[in-house]
Amino acid sequence: MMMMKTMKMLTRPSSSSSSSSPGYGTLMLSLSPPFFASSSSSSHNNSFHSKSQNFNTLDEALCCFNRMLHMHPPPSIFDFNKLLASISKMKHHSTVVSLSHQMYYFGIPPTVCTLNILVNSLCHLHRLGFAFSVFAKILKLGHQPDAATFNTLIRRLFDEGKIGDALQLFDKMIGEGFQPSVVTYGTLMNGLCKVGNTSAAIKLLRSMEQGNCQPNVVVYTSIIDSLCKDKQLTEALNLFSEMIAKGISPDIFTYTSIIHGLCSLCEWKHVKTLMNEMVDRNIMPNVVTFNIVVDAFCKEGKITEAHDVVNTMIQRGVEPNVVTYNALMDGHCLQCQMDEAVKVFDTMVRNGYVPDVICYTTLINGYCKIQRIDKAMYLFEEMCRQELIPDTVTYSALIHGLCHAGRLQDAMMLFHEMVACGKIPNLVTYSILLDYLCKNCHLVEAMALLNAIEASNMDPDIKIYNTIIDGMCRMGELEVARDLFYNLSSKGLHPDTWTYNILIHGLCKRCLLDEANKLFMEMDENDCSPNDYIYNTIIRGFLQNKETLRAIQLLKEMLARGFSADVSTTTLFVEVLSDDRLDQSVKQALHKFLK
Question: Helix, strand, coil % (nearest 5) of the chain?
Answer without folding.
Answer: 70, 0, 30
